[in-house]
Amino acid sequence: MKTNYKSLKIFVYIFLVGYCLLTLAPFLWSILTSFKTTAEISAGGSFFPKEWSLKGYQTIFDSQFPLWIKNSLFVALVTTIFNVLFNTMAGYSLARIDFKGRKVIFSFLLMLIMIPSQVTMIPLYIVISKLGLVDSQWSLIFTTMINIAYIFMMRQFFINFPRDVEEAATMDGLSRFGTFFRVVLPNAKAAIATQSVFMFMGVWNEFMKPLLFISSPDKYMLTQGLNAVSKQFRNATQWDVIMAGAIISIIPILIIYILLNKYFITENNQSAGVK
After folding, report:
1. CA angle, residues 232, 77, 155, in degrees to nearest 5
2. How far apart are CA 212 and CA 122, in angstroms?
3. Nearest alpha-carbon partner for 146 in 177, 109, 178
4. 65-96 vs 55-62: helix axis angle to the nearest 10?
5. Cα(52)–Cα(186) distance, rounded to whole angstroms?
6. pTM to 2 decimal places
């Protein structure tokens, strides 16, 4: 029996390692391709570069790529900050404050989640146009300042938040806002970190909204810039440039994840937040 269990365990490990390598292969290919010369890529046949080259990265940084990174960082960071604040406050209100119509508002929010984002694209553009924010980075920020899915996530988190902690803060003389900002938020780091990572990734990788609202090349988001670069060099098959841009675009996401990894959670475990 033990022999069969060990054999099964070995088989599972071999399968998982093989699947991991299969999943990582395209990513490794992209990294290695970014260091190849155009001639070597066109010739094909080799997984590792025969001649390591930084020409792709030099070409990328000689373009407007650094400006696009700056634009994307600004929009992603500001949007993430607004979302963390508003989504967390809304989730806390729906979970803790007993006001008239709370259940109706929550049900209405759940209904809105079912509406595809493509349906609201034209109305959003009309509103942004009326506000005079077309071709402005603030158009991307204002239309992504709140996310209903994360309001729901934070509500579920705060439903399980121990009331004793809030009652103790109230007895110490803290107001509702004081309790929220000085007690609740510090103990919700795990949920906030989870929200921040996913929100930053979503805004950073967004393509449709920038394509709809932004038209000036100097205001492009990174996704638009990469698309422009791919079109510019597609006929010349300069995949080293395209891959270099793609690899650089992943770095901020990795940094955010590494910084927040110790708080990162996959489910709303409230007990982990209170010591």
Report:
1. 125
2. 9
3. 109
4. 80
5. 47
6. 0.80
What number of other Cβ atoms are within 10 A of residue 183's Cβ?
Answer: 19
The per-residue pLDDT for range 109-128, each reduced to its tens digit, is 888 888 888 888 888 889 99
Provide the sign of the torsion angle of the four alpha carbons 19, 21, 27, 30, taken in this order. negative
**Number of other CB atoms surrounding residue 25 within 10 Å:** 11
Q: Which two three-digit tokens encode residue 141?
A: 């920020």
Measured distance CA(194)–CA(257) in Å, rounded = 9
Is 69 within 8 Å of 222 (Cβ atoms)? yes
- Cβ contact 226:242 at 8 Å: yes
Beta strands in 163-271 (DSSP E): none
Domains, the chain, in order of start with CATH, read 57-273 (1.10.3720.10)
C-alpha span between 25 and 41 (Å, rounded)? 17
Q: Which two tokens stand for residue 29?
A: 């290919």
DSSP string, 29-80: HHHHHTTS-HHHHHH---SS-SS---HHHHHHHHTTHHHHHHHHHHHHHHHH
Amino acid symbol at 192: I
pLDDT in tens, 218-270: 889 988 888 887 776 655 567 788 888 888 888 888 888 788 777 665 444 44
